[in-house]
Amino acid sequence: MTGIQGSSRRTWLLASVGAALAVGIALPAQAQQLAANADAPAAAQQVSDPAASVDQADAAKAAQTDDIVVTGSRIVSSGFKAPTPTQMLSAADLTRNAEPNVFTTIAQLPSLQGSTGTSVNVNSTSSGLQGLSSFSLRGLGPIRTLTLLDGQRVVGANVTGVPDISLFPQLLIKRVDVVTGGASASYGSDAVGGVVNFVTDKRFEGFKANVAGGITTYGDDKQYLIQAAAGHNFGRFHVEVSGEYDHEDGIPSPRFGEAGANGRDWYRTTTFINRGVTNDGSPQYLVRDHAQAYQYTKYGLITAGPLQGTAFDVNGNPFTFQYGGGTPAKNAAGTVNGCYSAGAFCLGGDLSGNVGNGTTPQSALKRWDGYSRIGYDIDDNNEIYASVNIARVDTSNTPNPGANKTGLTIQCSNPFVPASIQAQCVTAGITSFQFGTSNGELPRDITVYPTRSQYRFVLGAAGKVSALGSDWRYDLYGEHGENITDIHVENITLNSRYAAAVQAITVGGQIVCADPVARANGCVPLNIFGGATPSAATLAYISPANGPFQHTRQTQDVVSVAFSGEPVTLPAGPLAVAFGGEYRNEFYHVTADPYGNGVTAETPNSAAYPADPVLNSGGANWYAGNYHAGRGSYNVYEGFLELNVPLFKSTEAGRANLNVAGRATHYSTSGTVYTWKIGGTWDTPFDGIRFRAVTSRDVRAPNLSELFAAPTTTTLPSFTNPDPNRPAGSPATLLVFQNTIGNTALKPEVAHNTEVGVVLSGASWLPGFSASVDYYHIKVDGVISTLGAQQEVNLCYAGVTTLCGAFNLYTPAGTTPYVNVQAFNLASIKTDGFDIEMGYRQRMLGGTLSLRALATHVSHFITDPGIPGTIAVDTAGANSGNTPHWKLLGTESFETDKFTFNLQQRWFSDGVYANTYVVCSAGTCPTGRSATDNANYPTIDNNTMKGAFYLDVGGSYKLTPKFTAYFKIDNVFDKAPEPSPQTNTGVDVNAALYDLLGRFFRVGVRYNF
């Protein structure tokens, strides 16, 4: 591929694909029958690496006469063992865990860190990630983990390119292979952390069904699941279909205060209190429970001036607010003596208006999934097939209740102000006051409703042909995928309309909005003093039924061909070769409502969003959820070659092989990039002991969002010009436009991944036992990250010249200076650690005992922003993030012909809030430190964040040969999450690590015929 450029590359690849299609359509009959595992593409298959688990070892023995295909490689060869570690979950593993979404079971693997699900991103309105289930290996994020379905790419469910596992067909999954290492040479972009590959059962015959229900110990998140699948051979045709519906209620928002949803009592508004003092010998930060944000309360609070500290109850009656240990200074600054002005927090007191606990702990979810596949056997060795996957996922969540407002200026003459307060205004000689409110009077919380619909069609051929004196396997397919994402937000306010509605006056004996322009355009006043429910007309004005809306269409088109064979036999065994090519096109187009996007030719005003002079025609009118229109596309051409070279094979030296691969990839946006891997395995002459090692160069190409982000423009009125050679007369501060845009000049991130391990499996001296230990090291350079407008300009003049083209502060007269906020290849990530896996299986007491344990130790996870003046931060062991030092999954099961009983343990180690904190107590903290040290390594009085241990119990009983009843109890001890404090009173739990649901009960019945 290296010598093929431009249109020649495209001609070469398309010619190869066309030739392969011709071969697939007119395949000659073969004498040899297909191997048992050849019913799917070579790239997707893994009978298993015997070292990965006991179940895999047994599978390998059962299939010892067949070709063993490993997901971590494109090689298909008998006895081949890939050097890249692979963990497997079988269909039995998924069944035992009894989760309505297999995503949950797979995400429990210790190597998967930072995966997103229905309990993550629940505090978000605008991200589009709410309810999205996607995997993250090594804590590197979903965008650096490649997820495949039968070895094939799946259209993204978000503009970041990551798929939603909830949209996958789940009842026909035969196993899931997790490659815990770089695999870009085999599969292309995104396989930096590794690959998660779902392998479906393409020869399923019969009928099976599953019905299940569940509920938490708190009586919420009610769930029910209905699944069915059928398959049958009609001569040379094999047809299979499956369908499923999953309904999960989620957990409702607890709204205001500290009381958790339906009796949960673990929320304590734990917060980092910033004393604002750095060099007095005491810690700058204090970790405290029951923090109170004193700028607002549930039904309103006067926050500055002579009336500061006057709050209002549900009936609108004024009362003296309790600031915990603080007292209001009643000055214009709104100071509260005895509290912490740096964070505007008090401790204790009236916490009823706190909003951080109001986030939905678990999104609601409804999932529909339909899948069908039809295959036609041309002969015993070759098949053509087509598959269709149509699925939809609806989710919903409350990011926060109310929509709290601070810094409101209210006129004392406002007719909604109680008479007693108006009188106090006169006495104090004021005509207005500052006001803050949680908006507890609003009857319904902000709710985000993302809907994702997937349409995926695959046409392919797979099998074996003879050529050049040997057999060659091939896998050829074309795929078209389409994802439609619609996001609606309800019960959310328009900022300008809210601001107009709270400013009321009396005209002709009626209370109306003070602004005549707003009044002429439908403004209805809002009483924010107390908890009286606003009128329907008021609610329709400030939070219209047509809230923020975004419609996104993403498409993915793929043509791929791969061949694998053994053309030459060397002294130590056959030389195995795999090669192929792929074309891929990714596209997205997003439209949004004009109130969020701004009025443009693509999103004009409409009957649903009429023009309103109170609103900004440039957009950004909503409290949150200001979506924007955009579009973009790119295409990829790539080819790969992989070799497995047997090095030696003897009784004295054992058996060794060398595995090498290379891929050339051309992106229409960023040019050509090369990836490779070099690895090998050595089966030593010592019984059951094998070594493996692999090093690779991997890439992640910039995604659609980073390349073609929907543009937004905001005004920065007091922007600092740091140019040391600023022309005479040029102002030091100026007004600039901040344009948030994509960056089509981005280059792929480049990673270097190394793994070295030892495997014990199949030893005659320890039957039934297997174990492996692998060390990994990953370094990612050119990590795509975003800077603020002021950062970009400052860094340019500090010498980071790559940023200097992103702005112009000296535009021609009559035009406005601008700064383009974009993503750049600036940062780097480095992580290393160990994976450990052990398994044991033995027949006893009339059944089979199976034990398995997997553990991952993260030694370091260092992120360097790549910006002068910043420091690299190690987040390994920071339990406020995704990478605790240790994470463990243990399973024990006993199975007979009649029943099974299963135990599972999930554990991660104690950690810290952040590794940058310096722990000290009053009188012992360092003094005289520089401002840089205080900023980068702040002092704190407590830096311990406990880990967690969860026990799950399950079992099944065979009622009849066809019916099996089962149960599952997750988090048996109802372990509560640890607080993950912030520097505000927001959501203070880390759903990426901790269980927020509590004890969960599930029961169900399976039918197999």
TrEMBL record:
It is found in: Cell outer membrane. This is TonB-dependent receptor. Transmembrane segments: none annotated. Residues 81-195 form the TonB-dependent receptor plug domain. Pfam families: Plug, TonB_dep_Rec_b-barrel. InterPro entries: Beta-barrel_TonB, Beta-barrel_TonB_sf, Plug_dom, Plug_dom_sf, TAT_signal, TonB-dep_rcpt-like. Residues 1-31 form the signal peptide. Residues 515-972 form the TonB-dependent receptor-like beta-barrel domain. Keywords: Cell outer membrane, Membrane, Receptor, Signal, TonB box, Transmembrane, Transmembrane beta strand, Transport.
